[in-house]
Design goal:
Arc Repressor Mutant, subunit A; single chain; 3-stranded antiparallel β-sheet; elongated; 201 residues
């Protein structure tokens, strides 16, 4: 967990930033800036999932100096935009809603969405699983661990990965990223849930 202070961008101190802009072009630019801010905030705080009910009370969405904030509905609109692809006029799939039904274990992050209803908690992809997969491959090759077997726990909490950005990662995000490598033929996952092992090729 980083202890350094988060640096907000200049737009955060600009009151119109907190008001939905009526002009389409200006609104698109506003949503891009919000997406960038949310990703930077989550990356700084090593946060992989965002509970909007909790987040609207934090400095991320509430500028106390300006007495301006994004309410829950507007914060949800920003995340909604982030979940869409650029082709759909969205933010390049930098977020993904976590439903109550699945994909919301209680490990890491802020809450798991249970009982909060739809569109309450979202993954924030400051790196998408495909991008994390690339980071993992680079680390495996750089440390000469091709062909070796590691547990998912070791990858997330092991001393060998302490200096890596994926150290302390949410287990669900790690498994999603490893599954990308399985599809690419670069890894194999085996073992019972919660005790998974991974072999890298």
């Amino acid at each position: 967990m980083t202890t350094s202070q988060f640096t907000f961008p200049p737009t955060y101190n600009f009151p119109p930033f907190f008001t939905p802009q009526p002009n389409t072009t200006t609104r698109h630019s506003q949503l891009e800036k919000w997406s960038s801010l949310i990703q930077s905030w989550c990356r700084h705080h090593r946060q992989y999932r965002l509970s909007l009910i909790d987040a609207v009370e934090t400095p991320l969405f509430h500028n106390t100096a300006l007495r301006k904030r994004l309410d829950l509905r507007e914060a949800r609109a920003v995340i909604d935009w982030m979940t869409k692809s650029e082709e759909e006029g969205g933010g390049g799939r930098r977020a993904e809603w976590i439903s109550d039904a699945g994909g919301a274990s209680s490990s890491g992050g802020l809450g798991n969405g249970a009982g909060q209803g739809p569109k309450a908690v979202a993954w924030i992809w400051w790196r998408r699983p495909e991008e994390w997969a690339d980071v993992l491959v680079e680390w495996v090759e750089g440390t000469g661990q091709k062909g070796s077997v590691l547990t998912v726990y070791e990858l997330i909490h092991g001393e060998g990965a302490m200096s890596q950005e994926f150290h302390g990662m949410d287990t669900d995000v790690m498994l999603r990223s490893l599954n990308v490598l399985v599809k690419r033929g670069k890894a194999q996952i085996f073992g019972a849930e919660g005790q998974e092992g991974v072999k890298f090729f």
